[in-house]
Design a protein that fits this description.
D-Maltodextrin-Binding Protein, domain 2, alpha/beta, globular, single chain
Length: about 325
């Protein structure tokens, strides 16, 4: 499918037209929200007969709670967050990103080896993550353990919204953080810290964000859900095209989107469409890390929350290989 074809309206049979067309989706200002931002700005939602309002939220908990009560129809969500909810509460038919995360250390932890620095600290260093149930938590725990640090005994781990992390690091309120792009790059650019490791170095295929909706919403709006997934697939293909890189960066730099200087977005060439299929193997990896962290996780959640069948249905209707 050529890029020119992507924005053409989908001619769906009457019984496949969306049950509802006006939707509200939440997102956090991160690079991996790009497929949603592109779908709204470039007309891919409109091409699927949807009128979508993107709502920039301050925290992952806000999105989860608003989706759960119906204040939002769905959104950009942390995959482990869906897996941690009771069975059949949340589902995903589309993955949004993986690997574009980083661990940044502040001045207090600037010397190596990090294990010795932490062992000699008078008070336990404080690290920030975006949410307890997040790949950032599990990446940080793996990295600390690899460096001889007990994540449960030797450090404090707190939750901070990603856009606040660089400033908190600069002022010494935290000693390090793990978050997604562009916030590690922003912290380094401001001189607040150094990049100690990337998510790709720690766990190259670790899953991260997904397009999440409630199971009830998906059951009640199957055609709307398919239209939504199709639009975001189209947007991911557009975002992956090198010819659109400059336009993508401009869209993300907008204050209503990610809202950082375009220069901080230049290094990030995440593949969105290539990782869009929500694999149950990814969910299994997350569940194993959740259990290792002492987070309760339903062993059967992977097959219930992760719905590759929904992705394959949408991709097939676009004529894409599945």
């Amino acid at each position: 499918m050529s890029v020119a074809d992507l924005a053409r309206p989908t001619d769906q049979p009457v019984h496949h037209r969306p049950e509802r067309t006006r939707l509200a989706l939440g997102f956090i200002p991160l690079v991996d929200a790009a497929p949603l931002i592109v779908a709204e700005r470039c007309g891919f939602f409109t091409a699927e007969g949807l009128d979508v309002a993107l709502v920039r939220e301050a925290s992952w908990a806000n999105i989860r709670d608003k989706v759960a009560v119906g204040a939002l129809d769905g959104g950009h969500m942390l995959a482990p967050m869906l897996l941690a909810t009771p069975r059949r509460v949340m589902v995903t038919g589309l993955a949004l990103g993986r690997g574009d995360n980083g661990i940044v250390l502040g001045e207090r932890l600037s010397k190596a080896p990090i294990g010795d620095v932490i062992a000699g600290a008078v008070t336990p260093p404080t690290f920030a993550v975006v949410f307890p149930y997040s790949v950032h938590t599990y990446l940080l725990r793996v990295w600390l353990t690899t460096n001889g640090v007990d994540p449960d005994q030797d450090v404090r781990i707190i939750v901070v919204p990603p856009p606040q992390m660089p400033q908190m690091l600069a002022t010494g309120r935290i000693d390090g953080f793990c978050a997604g792009a562009p916030w590690p790059a922003l912290a380094v650019a401001r001189g607040a810290g150094r990049l100690a490791a990337t998510g790709a170095q720690i766990a190259p295929t670790a899953p991260d964000k997904v397009l999440g909706v409630t199971a009830d919403w998906a059951d009640q709006h199957p055609a709307t859900h398919q239209a939504l997934i199709r639009a975001v697939i189209r947007a991911g293909i557009w975002a992956d095209d090198p010819a659109n890189r400059a336009d993508l960066i401009e869209l993300l730099a907008d204050p209503d989107a990610v809202g950082v200087d375009a220069s901080l977005l230049q290094p990030h060439a995440q593949a969105f469409h290539r990782h869009a299929l929500p694999l149950t193997a990814d969910a299994d990896w997350l569940l194993a890390e959740m259990r290792a962290a002492g987070h309760l996780a339903d062993a059967g959640a992977a097959a219930i929350v992760y719905r590759p069948d929904l992705y394959r249905q949408a991709a097939a209707s676009l004529g894409l290989p599945v």
